[in-house]
Amino acid sequence: MHISFSKLFYIIASIIGVAAILFFGKVILVPICFAMLFAFILYPVVKWLMKKGVKKIIGIFLTIGGVFILTIGILVLFSAQIIDIVSEYSNFLEKLESTLETSISFLNNKVQVIPDLESETILEKLSNVFSDSSFLIISDTVNVTSSFLSFVVLSVIYTFLIIFYSEHLTEALVRFSSKKNRGSFLKMLREVQQVGQQYFMGMVFLILILGVLNTVGLLILGIDYAFFFGFLAALLAIIPYVGTTLGGLIPTLYAFATYDSYWYAIGVIGIFWFIQFVEGNFLSPRIVGGNMQINALFSIFSLIAGGVLWGIPGMILFLPLVAMLKVVCSHVKELKPIAVLIGERITKIEPPEERGVLEKVIYTLKRK
Q: What predicted TM-score, i.e. pTM, was given to this entire model?
């Protein structure tokens, strides 16, 4: 074996450089990445309208406008329930204080290892935390809203421009390759588009299924605002691994704060655990995972890296971006090992069972 330290240095420096660009350029890159994925989804609709005789620019306006109207309709549908839930904030605090006081009394009477806790001091500090948090929330609302609106506006503008100049951008990218490789390069670009498109279409379908399952489960328990909590949890499922847990935590806290019996909260936990089990083992692998073909190691790694570099948007974006990177690497000879490393399977050929792990890999490479 021969190790080239110069190549190793260039690889490490490249990784650090790419990470630095992603981190410091997230204000620009995040809306562009969202716009690119939205463009992948909306472009077939625009193309269908163009076949019907609609001009391209009008088709883009109609498509983006339709999505905007649908989004506003969903927000209006949920707005009344959100106002009712916020109005019960004081009841939640009273129930939380009562539960803490009962728990502290239990610990003081039953657990002799730790010193006695003063319930009045703890409740006073808790009240201060919630009061301070409320003021912070009010003071930050304007900043968060303005940042979100600017992000949405930029994403819409980028989406419009990417779709409008789609042919021009494709032609420009194809010219980066040599004439004899332009056919395969164009094929690679189409596969990248298909991966992004299939991922988000699969996520939309998965959100609808999870929303229905969550809503039915909460209705069976008799939880108020079952439709809102069910589809909110389903929408949070777009964040891999973390979103489903967070989506189940919100109705659990609501059931805990609203109902006298703790069995409602336990029932919500049981329902969301079962739905998460079904989603993780049956729904997601078949609806979304089949289009990604990324192993669990790099799925979790992309989730963590996305969260560190871009926050919640990175946790949403990095998984489809890694899937697109896998497609690009599979079409470049020097980068094919990376595609194999990211991919879910090495090969479909099964070597003899008596061989060890290393022998199986060597056998696979020889067969290729």
A: 0.72
